[in-house]
Write a structure and sequence with these properties.
By secondary structure, this protein is mainly alpha-helical. It folds into two domains: 90 residues, Helix Hairpins, CATH 1.10.287; 131 residues, Orthogonal Bundle (Helix Hairpins), CATH 1.10.287. Helix content is 67%, strand content 5%. A hairpin with a 6-residue loop joins β3 and β4.
Length: 279
């Protein structure tokens, strides 16, 4: 009898092992793993379900509503800042208008008192009369200037109020769009999560019928090999790495017992043989 070939980690037998390598010094060697052909084929069903779960996770993460909501939230943040600024400006103008109106009122009252003194005839000194008349004229000019200030502040306040009302509407509009996008996202979540639950349950049923040691190897390889731990050998090509087996590798696979778990020499995934393997 010939010397048995060394095995790779978790039961993989290298198809092209260099001569002279000893089992006890090869860190990738492990005892041979065997499983019924039907169990190996069921592993492909588990793999298909795992691929579907990965697709669903990616779909959930990359829903267009995520980017839409993020963009809308940025717009909303900017609009709210502008909204607060407009509200602050309107409040400032309101205070400024009140102060200007109070100033006008004070000047008007003072002018009214001076005019009352002038009309009463209580002031008889020509010089005092001249000073009083001059003050009344100055107060009239001052009142006119302050009334112009009031009008200017009122215009700015009206503009700030219009801006505030406009931004109030825009904020409400964007909030409505966010609510709509959030509702669509949540509906998509519900649909995806429902399918995830269904696929997960189906996986549990099928995986429960796969031998534990085979499933353990599969899960370990799937974690290492981008989510794919088992691949079909189809027409002499590994569907995991999409590479065709050379003649030496094919002969090794042909010589393997039906229940022997073989692995791809190129990607190290479990290589599942079917009637379409081209052997």
């Amino acid at each position: 009898m010939g010397t048995s070939r060394p095995r790779l980690e978790d039961g993989h037998r290298p198809l092209d092992r260099p001569r002279g390598v000893q089992r006890h010094t090869d860190p990738n060697w492990s005892p041979q793993l065997n499983a019924a052909p039907a169990d190996q084929i069921r592993l492909l069903d588990v793999q298909a379900l795992d691929v579907r779960l990965s697709q669903l996770a990616h779909k959930r993460k990359s829903l267009p509503e995520h980017a839409e909501i993020e963009s809308l939230n940025k717009d909303l943040t900017q609009l709210r800042d502008l909204h607060v600024a407009a509200q602050t400006e309107e409040s400032d103008c309101a205070r400024e208008q009140t102060k200007a109106e109070q100033d006008v009122d004070q000047v008007r009252q003072r002018a009214a008192r001076d005019q009352q003194r002038l009309d009463s005839g209580a002031v008889t000194s020509p010089r005092d009369l001249e000073n009083l008349q001059h003050e009344i004229a100055s107060l009239a000019k001052r009142q006119g200037d302050l009334e112009d200030v009031v009008l200017e502040v009122m215009e700015r306040r009206e503009s700030a109020q219009e801006r505030f009302e406009e931004l109030t509407g825009r904020v409400a509009s964007v909030e409505g769009k966010i609510n709509d996008a959030t509702a669509r996202r949540d509906a998509a979540f519900e649909e995806i999560d429902g399918e995830v639950a269904s696929v997960t349950k189906e996986r549990q049923v099928i995986a429960g019928s796969v031998p534990e040691d085979l499933l353990k190897l599969y899960d370990k390889l799937r974690a290492k090999e981008a989510g794919v731990g088992a691949a079909r050998l189809y027409q002499r090509r590994c569907e995991g790495c999409q590479l065709e087996l050379n003649i030496t590798e094919l002969n090794e696979v042909r010589a393997a017992a039906p229940d022997e778990v073989v692995r791809c020499e190129n990607c190290h995934r479990i290589l599942v043989r079917t009637s379409e393997s081209g052997l």
